[in-house]
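I can't quite decide. Please look over this sequence plus structure tokens:

:::
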Amino acid sequence: MTLRLSTVILPYRRWHEGGRSAWTRAEQLGFHAAYTYDHLSWRSFRDGPWFGAVPTLTAAAAATERMRLGTLVTSPNFRHPVTLAKELISLDDISGGRITLGIGAGGTGFDATALGQEPWTPRERADRFAEFLQLLDRLLTEDAVSYEGDFYAAHEARNIPGCVQRPRLPFAVAATGPRGLRLAARYGQAWVTTGDPKLFENGTPEQSVRALRAQAERLADACAGIGRDVGELDKVLLTGFTPDRDEPLRSLDAFVDFAGRHRELGFTEIVVHWPIPDSDFATDEKVFERIAMEAPAQLG
């Protein structure tokens, strides 16, 4: 099984002050894809510069030629399917069909209250996510859509000419629970996980591997439940949130060992964070570039 290596570039730098160069360098290094977070602000970066995902990806599409691009991940927290669909179709066109939409249910961070609303309960997040995905899928595959749901509506929403990628751009659905995994099985071309968050502080890498194996097995069960082959879905691991933390990026050998163990679980794509000085992602840039250039060949 070929294991692809991708990166996620946080949108914290002005485009002409290091923002553009990160995306072009990612393509030069041979990354399969470069993603960005779709937040209004995020964790320790809240009081510093932070730019929008869609404009950033639009600029990245113009600055690159081959590398896939996408969000990791978008959520319903501050998005509406009708307006998001129009932006995605435009972005897919500008990029020449290189966009993947990473999408999840959202959480309780800053995005959850930035529009003035109370944070949604876990049940409401799940309900909204299911409806969001259903409507977005239609909006990206049909010329005109009318819909009236519990949370979202569309009235003769036009999306002509549709996506460059047919029948629509791929969804990479982030999920760990039973309901989210069923949505990944139904709508996803890929599944995304960061591991088991309960293990991040006090778990071990071995426990994390077992938890990820269990998640993958539940995904297979969800696919089987609708008669779909789980092998049709890419399995994407966003690193940095398992008990391994930054250890896999300490050396080429450490990364190859980490990636190899997760390839055995069925993962087809490993995503690493682009180095950010003085942060949780303060990876040695020379080691990072060596991993990007040499690890894929060692992993086969």
